[in-house]
Amino acid sequence: MNSSEIDIHKELKKYFGFNQFKGLQEQVIKSILAQINTFVIMPTGGGKSLCYQLPALIQGGTAIVVSPLIALMKNQVDAIRSLSSENGIAHVLNSSLTKSEITQVKKDITSGLTKLLYVAPESLTKEEYVQFLQSVPISFVAIDEAHCISEWGHDFRPEYRNLRHIIKQLGNVPVIGLTATATPKVQEDILKNLDMSDARTFKASFNRPNLFYEVRTKTKNIESDIIRFIKQHKGKSGIIYCLSRKKVEAIAEVLQVNGISAVPYHAGLDAKTRAKHQDMFLMEDVDVVVATIAFGMGIDKPDVRFVIHHDIPKSLESYYQETGRAGRDGGEGYCMAYYSYKDVEKLEKFMSGKPVAEQEIGFALLQEVVAYAETSMSRRKFLLHYFGEEFSSETGEGADMDDNVRNPKGKKEAMDEVVKLLKVVRDTKHLYKSKEIIFTLIGRVNAVIKAHRTDAQQFFGSGVDFEERHWMALIRQVLVEGLLSKDIETYGILKVTDKGLDFINHPTSFMMSEDHEYNESEDESIVT
Ligand code: ADP
């Protein structure tokens, strides 16, 4: 059958039992069926899997699905097999298979039975597999978790970098990239590395209007604060993320002692215990899982009511991903993060042993988390801006769902300061990151400023009336408003945008609020 003649609604009902497509699924599927390279960016739970599963099932040939996690591949294969009477409809190809199992997989593919073949990227480096795949009809290659290709993603995997080369050897097959995390920089990396700049891109909104965001100062009373919070949400399911295994154990114990049903989850526990704790959470035998980031990938519990970050995450991508596990059913989802600058310093220290390029990326990503925590503007607007999405604080869905919007700080007119800031960025010739811009404004020198002789300029010290913190807050707000942009490639050099240049010439009102001040003396920082 010609793909244009296929009634995809009927096929959706037949295979998956759903009456309609979710979000952009229909457009994506049509693009895939038309053999067009396709790029899908949808938040977790958006229904990405079906975007490639359905076209694979209804087309001739086998679709190759590249996925980074063996456990997830197995789940997906089981799910597909349950839709059909034929086990051979989906297979995983990996090094753990026996010789006779591999023979069976190849037989099923050759006979046209297998519609979906899941492979880990490292399996595709095996010459023998590539040769075999060259000899059979391939409908398309889907690359799941495509952000793994980018060093700017939160889960960089070098094996993903070979994919383009391998796919090219398979002939002219369409490529589908899918991800739930895509800052503009990661998107660009994916398209470039997969050589699919011609891809039709489908991007769903990342706004989760039912999630409430709050950041609290991390003090030595954090444990009683968490206990109080959980007791206020009695009987509801929640996840608490900690950075270290030791902290996970400690918090789980404190909760248990305080009559809260909680279990720990981290990679240091044996597989049996991990599976047991995960099941207990899914089956609602316990309310709370205290976990490291090892917990959550592929977990589809719809009614998680809160996600608490005991320690700040390393990037906003991770934060979005982890908080995204709350309220998947559209119901209440409370996302609370505890913040302390000491934690940031600890994380920076951990990173200092890594290769320089990796460190720079790590610092830049962490600075975004700091900015998110310290900002006094709409947290939703801030997060969505980070993902390249404009959000209206007035009319956007969920606009009042965060601590900053509910309890706004006083605002004041900052038009003149914005002009001053923009001029300094412009007149220092787009050479500086926030730090040097602020130093220039307040008249402080460092080696970089000396080297460029900025301290001899007449605008040096032009913003001395305000403190460093004030300028930092203003830079963050001006970035989100699009008057400045930050160049990620150079790890954060500021540039005045066209909109910013326009503002210098025709200034208008700019209302700003001061960032939060966190009381460092009461800190309880990450204890490892
Ligand atoms: P993602 O991979 O984007 O995180 P999934 O593919 O796991 O999302 O899908 C999330 C959930 O949505 C799954 O439970 C899936 O069965 C469901 N789903 C997907 N498409 C549809 C649809 N068209 N109608 C109803 N439910 C759907």
UniProtKB/TrEMBL annotation:
Q: Which reaction does it catalyse?
A: Couples ATP hydrolysis with the unwinding of duplex DNA by translocating in the 3'-5' direction
**Cofactors required:** Mg(2+); Zn(2+)
Q: Does the keyword Membrane apply?
A: no
Gene Ontology molecular function: 3'-5' DNA helicase activity; ATP binding; DNA binding; four-way junction helicase activity; hydrolase activity; metal ion binding
Q: Which UniProt keywords apply?
A: ATP-binding, DNA damage, DNA recombination, DNA repair, DNA-binding, Helicase, Hydrolase, Isomerase, Metal-binding, Nucleotide-binding, Zinc
Helicase C-terminal domain spans which residues? Answer: 221-378
Output the GO biological process annotations, alphabetical, semicolon-separated.
Answer: DNA recombination; DNA repair; DNA replication; SOS response
Top class in the EC scheme: isomerase
The EC number(s) attached to this protein equal 5.6.2.4
List, for all copies, the residue spans of the domain called Helicase ATP-binding.
29-200
Q: Which GO terms describe its cellular component?
A: bacterial nucleoid; cytoplasm; replisome
Family, per the entry?
Belongs to the helicase family. RecQ subfamily.
What's the protein here called? DNA helicase RecQ
